[in-house]
Amino acid sequence: MSADWKQRPEGGSPFALRLLRAIARVGGRGVARVCLYPIVLYFLIVRGPERRASRDYLARALGRAPSAWDVARHIHTFAATILDRLFLLSGQMQHFDIQVHGLDELRAVHAHGGALIFGSHLGSFEALRVLARTAPEVQVRVVFDRSHNPAMTRLLDALDPKIAAGVIDAGQDGPSIVLAVKQALDEGALVALLVDRARPGEPWLRTPFLGAPAPFPIAPWLIALTLKAPVLLAFGLYRGGARYDLVFEPFSDGSAVARQDRSRVLAGRVERYAARLQHHAVSAPYNWFNFYDFWHADDAHEGTGRDPADDAAPLGAVAGASRRHQHHLGGSHHSGSEPVRPA
User: Distance between terminal CA atoms of the chain?
Assistant: First the structure.
């Protein structure tokens, strides 16, 4: 994400989060959803950068000029998934109709040991909670930065202390994160992280996405290559009301890649990932929750720094790759996948 966006304040004070949780606990999901409308109105009136980012993205995903109603629906979808996190993380699955696609494929990969699950800020990653019911034999470990949005982190930790205890903190140094991920994989866990945001100074590839090149981080893919871990993609798409589609797609098998082929393989995987992300974004356009100028982020860092295929890159870059992965309202003129290196 761009440096300017990183400095944008979060939408939601600790008091507001506690109030929403109290309303949800006392009145239930139906009553709490009524509170979403003033939240949407607030973002429409006050948060201009998010509103403009929504319009830019929707124009690409919808293939037309979005209306004010489209922008409101986009923000409402985001707010609805945030509210549903309170219920999903507290185990109240009875409120939801979650259809799981690709579970047999996930089990087939998991039968051979641990694997990486790569998600995105498209839909709700918390829909993975349904695995506790449909595949209780699967252990899921989540990677995110606990220091980002501490109010939300404390709230979610209180809702599900078991998940909180298993979190791999992306606020650690790079080698510590890689070692923690490797240990979890060796124990047969599925390690889940979001891979669609590149931080300032982090190595990334600019690859086609919704009509223009956009920067995608390469550190997660370097981790997968370094640890020789299979990768599955996961999309928890909100379909309105209480309906979600949780989709798993096997992506790569963890085979070893020769060092001289690493840059080519990285570019190919990032480009394939962007294509799958685009497919699902078009199928569920209001599910995109990167509320910043996604296509032009980090332009100031373009073309500087060291080779991202360096053997040390996974350890140095991973610290930034998995940070700021809690949802929050938060291309250039050439095409193709192009390596971009950090300052």
Answer: 15
Condensed to tens digits (0 to 9), the pLDDT of residues 169-183 reads 777 777 888 999 999
Q: Work out the number of other CB atoms within 10 angstroms of the CB of residue 260.
A: 8
Which residue, among 151, 164, 209, 195, has the nearest Cα to 12 in the 3D structure? 151
* pTM for this entry: 0.82
Question: Facing residues of 116 across strands?
Answer: 191, 231
Those residues whose C-beta lies under 8 Å from the C-beta of residue 279, and which sit 6 or more positions away, are: none
Other CB atoms within 10 Å distance of the CB of residue 36: 18
Judge contact between 102 and 110, C-beta under 8 A.
no
Smallest CA-to-CA distance from 236 within 248, 224, 245, 226 is with 245
Q: Which 3 state secondary structure label does DSSP give 144?
A: strand
Distance CA 119, CA 196 (A): 8
Q: Where are the domains of the chain?
A: 3-340
Structural tokens at position 26: 């006392």
Question: Rounded to whole angstroms, how far apart are CA atoms 45 and 51?
Answer: 9
The answer to whether 234 and 280 have CB atoms below 8 angstroms apart is: no
Alpha-carbon distance of 140 to 98, in angstroms, equals 18
**What would the two tokens of residue 276 be?**
């799958």
Q: Which helix (H) or strand (E) segment is 266 a member of?
A: helix 262-283
CA angle 10, 12, 16 (to 5 degrees): 160
Segment 188-242, tens digit of pLDDT: 999 999 999 876 677 889 999 999 999 999 999 999 999 999 999 999 999 999 9
Beta strands of the chain (E only): which ranges?
97-101, 115-119, 140-144, 168-169, 190-194, 204-209, 212-217, 231-240, 243-252, 338-340
Torsion from C-alpha of 291, 295, 298, 300, nearest 10 degrees:
-130
Residue 141 β-bridge partners: 191
